[in-house]
Structures are given as structure tokens and as C-alpha cells.
Amino acid sequence: MILIKNGYVIDPLSKLNENIDILIDNENVVKIDKNIDEGNVDKVIDASSCIVAPGFIDIHSHFRDPGFIYKEDIFTGANAAARGGYTTVICMANTKPVVDNVETLNYILNKAKMAIIEVLQVASITKGMVGKEIVDMKKLKEAGAVGFSDDGKPITSSKIAVEAMNIARELDVVLSFHEEDPELISENGINSGKIADALDIKGSPKEAENVLVARDAALAISTKAKIDIQHISSGLSVELVRWAKKMGANITAEATPQHFSITEEEVLKKGANAKVNPPLRMESDRKAIIEALKDNTIEIIATDHAPHSREEKEGKISKAPSGMIGLETALSLAISKLIKPGYLSYMDVIEKFTVNPAKLYRLDRGYIKEGHRADIVIFNPEEEYVVSDFYSKSCNSPFIGEKLYGKVKRTIYKGTIVYEDEKSGCFNY
For site-directed labelling of 36, which of 1, 106, 156, 349 has its Cα 20 to 30 A away? Predict the structure, then answer.
């Protein structure tokens, strides 16, 4: 048995928000109470000065397995996730081969059984992610796909988009959309404007995102499908989602830590490590995203963890792949950029890391309750550290060298400690 003592427990589902102990036996929480007796307990974790919360759920990660395991694999991705406080991660389908068939899906799910956290998988919406033919969604759902996304590539055909939505509605599954119209983009990864001009590239304008968000928001209203707008970056796109919600669309939006933390200016400082699809935008867009997080227009914080090798990122910026890792810094960025400035509370942020992602995918996760699976994160919100090393295979982060608040001390998955940081705070005895 494991006893977590003296921690401040925040559980958004039950609204638990107090100093209280948690007793874990085997895989489950068996008692939540004041001053639980330490007798017969195998391990006591003194969580003084720490927040105890449900294990985080990331609905948008790339573990690159199969096909690109020099960047990441299921095991290293899971290790990085555990270090960041995540106990459940949903991976995208842009592997090699693409997850558009049962064989590839089975490979991932079978390998994931040996990971230290829960790794779930979406399948692609279209075969080969080329946007022309819809996959056998029913068959892939039955085989274990938890949703569908062509993330990494937009679906440009409105005909395909509406057909996919109609099927998804019948199957009651989530469709997640990467919204960037390639016909409006000259060079992706960097926002069109002054920074792109300074680098002598044309970049990616906001309009590329806005037009597809507008299309899919309208189609969601008419089809009644459940859709997720991935990694939203534009202030106008935020307004379009807000409008669609008012019109009755079953639409969810997710924001990444990078899009609420930094702007296009970072590209001049950090180079290709700050190159991402959709790109970092202007300060006005960053503020619009924060306001949308405040009023729940954006309900979910997702990492879009996207590893790339050092060699890939060190080349010419116009040729470097887009993407950055994010599982190990997401919590710290949320604390440093959202909570410390006073935009959101700890309850608000933890809700967007736990119960809201679980609700979207109908997962029985994201809360702490007696009799329920013990997926728990313990973190010290006041501990400062400098971002310097990663459990991920890759280190393509624009936050290297930055001082942030909030350090994960323990991650517990199914009652087992899968990550622990012994440097300071929250010790065993």
C-alpha cells in the first residue's frame, strides 16, 4: 500500500480542494480522508508543499512508432509523459506506415501494453492521410482506435470532411482536425509577417487556419458530429469556435502550451526549435487563446509532443521539420504562463489536463475517487528549475534554458510509482 500524506488534493470532477490523505492499495484508491493511519502501509509519500491531482491525459502526442523511432518510440515517449505527470496519452496516426489499418494499430496497441503508462491510439481519417478515401472507421474502432485524425495534414476536401463527420456521428467517435489550408501556405511553420520577412520566407498566414476552422465548424453544426479543433493558434479561429458553440455545434478546441506561452518572436531566438505547425502567432493571438482558456471556449490543453532529431532541426530553417516536444514542460508552462499571472486557477488548469480530455474521449479517467484506478500526479507548484534535459529521445524544445515554476515529483499509474524526482520536496519515508 502507498499512503500520500499532507498533500493539497485538487480534483476537478468532485471539486475536492483541500489538504487530505490518499491511500492506495494495488491499483486503486481505497481511502481519501484526514490523518489516515500509517499502519500496514508499505510506502508513505510526504506531499507537503505539493499538489496532488489526477494523472494528466494528453490527447495529442506523436510517439513516432512505427517508422521514425530514431526520434521517439512508444517506451521513450511514455517515459517522457510520466515525467511530465501524464498517465494516459493518445497518439496521432502519422506514423510509417500510417495507422489506417488494423495491422499497424495492433502493432502499436500490443507494444503499448509494455509501456509504463497507458498509451492509446487514434487512426487516420483517410487512407495514407492523403485526404481522398475514408478508412474503415467501424473496423478500426472495433480494433481499439479511440478516435480519428489526419493530424499533420489537413483534409482539404469538404466532401471527404462531411462524409467522415457523418460516419463518426453514427459510430459516436471523435474526429480531430489539423486546420491549415495548404493552398494558402507558401512555407509552413512560421507565421507570415515580420518574422517571416526577416528570415526571407513567406510563411503561413492565419487565414490558412481560419478558413478550415470556419468550414469544419459549419459542418459540425449541420452533421451533429463530435469534432476537435487541434492546436488552435489564431484569434479569429478562437472566435469561430466560440460562435460554433453558440450555434449548437458539438465542437471542442485544444490549445498547446507553446501557443499560450510564446509568440513568433521566439523563432528569432530559438530558430527551428520554435518552428511548429500551425506556427507561433502574434501576441494578440496568444492573448485570445488565454481568454478562450479562461471562458472554456478552449477546454483542453494538449501538448502536440512532436519529436525531431537534432540533425533535422539544425539545418536551414526553411527546410527543418516543424514541431517541438512538450510532454515534460506542459505543466510548468501552464503554471508559469497561466496560473502565476492570474489568468487561471490550479483547478481550472488541472481540469483542462484531466477531466476535460477524458470527457471528450469518454475515458473513465481524470479523477480521484475511492474504488477508482489510482492514476495520480504529485507536483510542487513553487519549485523553480531551468529546462535542460529530457527523457524524450529528442530535445527540440524552444524552452531549453528557460526558468519555469512547477516540478513533477511523483507520477503514479495504476497504483505504481512510474516516475519520481528526488531532488527536492515530496519525499518518501
Answer: 349
Asked if residue 326 and residue 205 are part of one domain, the reply reads yes
Query: What value does the mean pLDDT take over residues 333-351?
Result: 98
- Spell out the residues 6+ positions from residue 167 whose beta carbon is closer than 8 angstroms to its own: 134, 137, 138
pLDDT tens, 354-367? 999 999 999 999 99
Distance CA 328, CA 25 (A): 28
Which cell numbers in the block locate residue 13?
Answer: 470532477
Q: Clarify whether residues 39 and 181 are in a common domain.
A: no
Does residue 33 sit in the same domain as residue 148? Answer: no
d(CA 298, CA 348): 12
- Per the domain annotation, does 366 fall within a domain? no
Q: Report the distance separating Cα 364 and Cα 367, nearest Å.
A: 8
For residue 224, what are the domain limits?
55-360
| Enzyme catalytic residues | 304
Q: What is the DSSP letter of 85?
A: T
What's the per-residue H, E or C state across 351-371?
HHHCHHHHHHCCCCCCCCCCC
Residue 84: pLDDT above 60? yes
Q: How many domains does the chain have?
A: 2
- Condensed to tens digits (0 to 9), the pLDDT of residues 176-215 reads 999 999 999 999 999 999 999 999 999 999 999 999 999 9
- For residues 7 and 114, membership in a common domain is answered with no
